[in-house]
């Protein structure tokens, strides 16, 4: 008589083996690509299907923000220091790049919150939700970049060879935003205060990043601009787009290296926390 197989249930062994856990993480990442694509297509279609202006909403926000700051500067309500670019182009490129960063930052928490019902009922790689958000960011980013290129051609700015490196700057912006967003997602799923607090912090950071105002030459704000890790990202990406030689390339590379580490830590935290969060959502 053949003995019946014996199955022993024990805690997940991958938790005690970092290499095994990393292998499972990348395995699930690859397995989630098709599902992530289908989720992204569904969300993009639903986002624009019932909208009269459609994809125009992808850059309406940055354009209106640009128009506001041009008006304030032109009327003398605010005094903006001289910029190497025409101020309208400086603000337009800055707000467009900033909107890509904020979208990447908010995407992990927003996508996970939006998939609460599916996460609680279905067993699938959780990475699909995050990758779906990245696909949507890339779609919206392509629309914004097309507008930026048209604006540069209209004012006669030739990006030159820097345009070849500009996608690297965009991917870096998305990398850093996603890394930070993924790191705060587990806590943000439990406490809505996190999402609100992030929005308030981002409003302040925009004013100490070369988005609307150039980096000051002196004064108390200069250290804030210099110490802000987003400064080299925004400045370098804008320089590549507009044909200038990047000044903060070294800092740009350091920030990206740190962002990769933060992304890995955030990914680990996300995988470890999601089963607990899903259990709490189901109870």
Q: Count of helical segments?
A: 11
Give the averaged pLDDT, no decimals.
Answer: 83
Q: What class, by secondary structure content?
A: mainly alpha
Strand content: under 5%
The radius of gyration is: 22 Å
What is the molecular shape? globular
Order of helices and strands: HHHHHHHHHHH
Fraction of helical residues? over 70%
* Low-pLDDT stretches: 7-11
Counted beta strands? 0
Distance between the termini: 44 Å
Q: Biggest β-sheet: count, sense, barrel?
A: none
Please tell me the total number of domains.
1
Fill in the keyword field for this structure.
single chain; about 280 residues; mainly alpha; about 75% helix
Structure description:
By secondary structure, this protein is mostly helical. The protein has one domain (about 20-280). About 75% of the residues lie in helices and about 0% in strands. It contains eleven helices and no strands. Helix 4 (about 85-115) packs parallel to helix 7, helix 7 packs antiparallel against helix 10 (about 230-240) and helix 7 (about 160-190) packs parallel to helix 11 (about 250-280). About 35% of the residues are buried. The model is unreliable at about 5-10 (pLDDT under 50).
Summarize the structure.
The chain has 283 residues and is an all-alpha fold. The protein contains 11 helices and no strands. It has one domain (20-282).
Mind sketching the topology for me?
Layout: H1 18-31, H2 33-49, H3 57-74, H4 87-114, H5 116-121, H6 127-155, H7 162-190, H8 193-207, H9 221-227, H10 230-242, H11 249-282
Helix pairs in contact: 2-6, 3-4, 4-6, 4-7, 6-7, 7-10, 7-11, 10-11
């Amino acid at each position: 008589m053949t003995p019946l197989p014996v199955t022993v249930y024990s805690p997940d062994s991958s938790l005690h083996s970092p290499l095994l856990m990393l292998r499972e993480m990348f395995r699930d990442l690859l397995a989630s690509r098709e599902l992530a694509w289908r989720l992204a297509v569904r969300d993009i279609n639903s986002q624009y299907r019932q909208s009269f202006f459609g994809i125009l909403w992808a850059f309406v926000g940055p354009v209106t923000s640009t128009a506001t700051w041009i008006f304030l500067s032109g009327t003398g309500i605010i005094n903006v220091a001289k910029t190497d670019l025409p101020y309208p182009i400086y603000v337009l490129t800055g707000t467009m790049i900033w909107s890509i960063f904020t979208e990447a930052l908010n995407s992990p928490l927003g996508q996970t919150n939006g998939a609460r019902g599916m996460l609680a009922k279905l067993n699938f790689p959780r990475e699909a939700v995050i990758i779906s958000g990245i696909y949507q960011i890339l779609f919206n980013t392509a629309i914004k970049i097309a507008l930026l290129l048209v604006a540069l051609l209209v004012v006669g700015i030739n990006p030159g060879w820097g345009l070849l490196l500009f996608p690297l700057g965009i991917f870096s912006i998305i990398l850093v935003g996603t890394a930070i967003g993924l790191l705060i997602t587990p806590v943000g799923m439990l406490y809505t205060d996190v999402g609100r607090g992030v929005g308030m912090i981002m409003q302040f950071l925009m004013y100490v990043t070369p988005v609307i105002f150039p980096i000051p030459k002196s004064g108390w704000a200069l250290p804030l601009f210099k110490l802000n890790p987003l400064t080299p990202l925004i400045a370098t990406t804008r320089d590549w787009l507009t044909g200038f030689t990047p000044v903060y390339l070294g800092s740009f590379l350091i920030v990206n290296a740190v962002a990769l580490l933060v992304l890995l830590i955030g990914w680990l935290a996300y995988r470890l926390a999601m089963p607990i969060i899903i259990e709490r959502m189901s109870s």
